[in-house]
Amino acid sequence: MAIVSGKTKNGYTYEGDYQHANSDRVTWTATYRLEGHFYGMRHGRIDQLGGASVSDVDDAVKDDIESTWTKPG
């Protein structure tokens, strides 16, 4: 399992973790906060990561965490 954290473009901080579900897929879970107050949790998965470096996987997970929280609708 790996840990990631960051801040979304709309100001929420997040802490998350991910793990490899198989050789080319990761599943992740993240908790979102604003000014220290809990606002929600989300989870997701990313496919087709076979051969990606650890840094690339981290970046892909962070991008997906951001997108899941900030995308409309």
β content, as a range? Answer: over 45%
Q: In order across it, which strands form the biggest sheet?
A: 1-2-3-4
- State the assembly state of the protein chains: single chain
**Total number of helices:** 1
SSE arrangement, N to C: EEEEH
Q: Show unreliable segments.
A: none
Note the main sheet: 4 strands, antiparallel
- Structural class designation: alpha+beta
- What distance lies between the first and last C-alpha atoms, to the nearest angstrom? 30 Å
Question: Looking at the structure, what is the overall shape?
Answer: elongated
How many strands appear in the DSSP assignment?
4
Q: Helical percent range?
A: 10-25%
What do you see in this structure?
The chain has 73 residues and is an alpha+beta fold. The protein has one domain. Helix content is 23%, strand content 49%. The chain has one helix at 54-70, and strands at 2-7, 13-22, 25-34, 37-46. It has a 4-stranded antiparallel sheet with strand order 1-2-3-4, covered by helices on one side. The radius of gyration is 12 Å and the shape is elongated.
Quick overview of this protein structure:
By secondary structure, the chain is of the alpha+beta class. It has one helix at 54-70; strands at 2-7, 13-22, 25-34, 37-46.
Sequence-ordered SSE layout with sheet pairings:
Blueprint: E1 2-7, E2 13-22, E3 25-34, E4 37-46, H1 54-70
Antiparallel strand pairs: 1-2, 2-3, 3-4
What tags apply to this protein structure?
receptor; single chain; about 50% strand; TonB-dependent receptor; elongated
